[in-house]
Amino acid sequence: MEAAHAEGAFTGQAHDLSLLLKRNCSISPSGLWRVFVLIALVTLGIGAGFACFGAWLILPFAGVELLVLAAAFLVVGRHATDCERIEFAAGRVRVEVRDSERTAVHEFDLSRAQVVLGEGGGGIRVWLRARDAQLEIGRHLDEQSRAGLATELRRRLHGKWDGERKT
Amino acid sequence: MSAVIDSHGQAHDHHGGGYGGIMRWITTTNHKDIGTLYLWFSFIMFMTGGAMAMVIRAELFEPGLQFVNPDFFNQLTTMHGLIMVFGAIMPAFVGFANWQIPMMIGAPDMAFARMNNWSFWLLPFAASMLMLSFFMPGGAPGVGWTLYAPLTVQMGMGMDLTIFAIHLLGMSSIMGSINIITTILNMRAPGMTLMRMPLFCWTWLITAYMLLAAMPVFAGAVTMTLTDRHFGTSFFNAAGGGDPVLYQHIFWFFGHPEVYIIALPAFGVISQVIPAFSRKPLFGYASMVYATSAIAILSFMVWAHHMYTVGMPVTGQLFFMYATMLIAAPTGVKVFNWVATMWRGSLSFETPMLFACGFLFLFTLGGFTGLVLALVPVDIQLQDTYYVVAHFHYVMVAGALFSAFAGIYFWLPKWTGRMYDETLGKWHFWLSMIFFNMIFFVQHFLGLAGMPRRIPDYPLMFETWNKISSIGAFGFGLTQLLFLYIVLKAIRSGEKAPQRPWEGADSIDWTMIPTPAPYHTFETPPVIK
């Protein structure tokens, strides 16, 4: 269960836009890592201490617990910095997509770019399309916000409704 | 553009897998459903453990053996302790955590919703195993809830069931803790910094850390007991070169933090209730956070004060005595802050506030007798007497249970959209208060007079106080049926609750969420200004 956070600003001229869409993660992956190290040191320290007095069977339980905790933090942390940065500048639409540790940059010609709305597994989905290239955007948003994003982008791009629906 | 949105709204449209009836509850991943399950489970276990207490008190009503044989009496005291600690009190506060933490930090649910479901559903199986141990050859373990070696090595199959039940309970606690830590650290709404969280969330965050540190210790202890019983090891079996005192060290290294694992969430509940009915912000919020952390850290350094009589060097006794007394400092900070919150507040005494005040008064008494027991020369006299029984029931019942009642009355309107019957609620409080003190205050006198705990028979000199204690116990037990009636009445036909029935309640679960809380909340996380 995650929530997402969109922040950014429409700046300058009508076609200038800088928008950051990201998950709502209130701790950074490095912060999670620090928490894990702290818990691991305490838990393993206690287990090791008792092992020194012969009660070594605490250590395996501490180890299993830390593995589960590490897995949980990994699941959360590896997508904590996922985001989409959408920028309109110098006649181009630049979309930077960060997914786990991968970062991909997609650029579209501003005059040819279209915003396409469609229906998908998660309800309304939004694509940015130019000629034969297309990219899904707003994946971190809920349905209502995706629709709002599409409307805003269309207004910025062409100031008109292109009416196209993708199924 | 600024917006705060949920990226996975579709993921929790059907928390019960689209099922209705019982399958909805079995498959649900909604934090509110799971919170409700925890609370009802806790109440069932509370009544089960309470029924055992009734038999214990009936047996102790007068000298001689009346209803049960000594062996079964020991089984009852053991299972009463295990069920109340692990089946009733701990799940009750996990229930509060499930309901309240996401709503208090602006999260749509717990971080790992399916794991949350699993955490709960381990509990009924664990409880069943505990109860089934009564029907095993030799019955349930009659060793006390501390499960001391070498008695545990000599018990029948019921001991093995108990060990496996403890493992299941531990797994549930660890998964719950991981969920709570991840939720609080990672899913707070924008603007909800750690130092702006309601104190209930802070106490649970620290409690979850403590559980992660303490649970492997207990799991290891009972596993070593198991291997001593069946696999030829001699960790604690002196006959094979093992050390039974090592078990006591291990158990209490877990057992003392366990007291605070129960108490800290109770502190969190009280820290929500008192400001609401004082119509003032909590006095000394930051100091409350630091005091809670200090209590948690110190709780791992005082375990051997339970073991003065098993023998340890004088320097060890002195260390554990002073370390134990040191806990009074951060605890005193908390009590001072609660009282200071009430000072010159616009106080009103609805049922949650009554229970909070009852908690404050009685928990402080329990803490004070804890200080008495921390003193080595005194403890050596009072070890294993009814003074100890009285002390820890003041902490567990008046501390944890009263705060749980305060929390239920406080949040019931938010959960159900209905108000409870205030008059009956007040009856519940006053009867609980009177009967509680009838049971346990007099046990101080019994302990000071030398009556040992865990005995089904006693000399005639202890009869009067035991009679009073038993009458109090029967009254307290019946009073909890009144509590059940109040809750059911509220759910079925209570008056419709207003949005904020408590005008002083100002956390976001009251100010930003409708009453009753809808099935899904904060799908769009709020921005906290």
What this model shows, in words?
The complex is a heterodimer of chains A (167) and B (529). With 167 residues, chain A is α+β, with helices and mostly antiparallel strands. Chain A contains three helices and nine strands, in the order ββααββββββαβ. Chain A has helices at 29-52, 58-77, 143-157; strands at residues 4-9, 17-23, 83-89, 92-99, 102-109, 114-120, 123-130, 133-137, 165-166. In chain A, the strands form two sheets. Chain A has a five-stranded antiparallel β-sheet with strand order 1-2-3-4-5, with no helix packed on it. In chain A, helix 1 runs antiparallel to helix 2 (58-77). Mean pLDDT of chain A is 82; it is low at 7-14 and 160-167. Chain B has a single domain (28-235, 242-511), classed as Cytochrome c oxidase-like, subunit I domain (Cytochrome C Oxidase, Chain A), CATH 1.20.210.10. Chain B is 68% helix and 1% strand. Chain B has helices spanning 21-27, 31-59, 70-105, 113-132, 151-154, 157-186, 199-230, 244-278, 285-299, 314-326, 328-342, 351-374, 376-382, 386-416, 422-448, 463-493, 508-511, and one strand at residues 2-5. Chains A and B meet through strand 1, helix 1, helix 2 and helix 3 of A and strand 1, helix 6, helix 7 and helix 8 of B. Strand 1 (4-9) of chain A pairs antiparallel with strand 1 (2-5) of chain B, so a sheet runs across the interface.
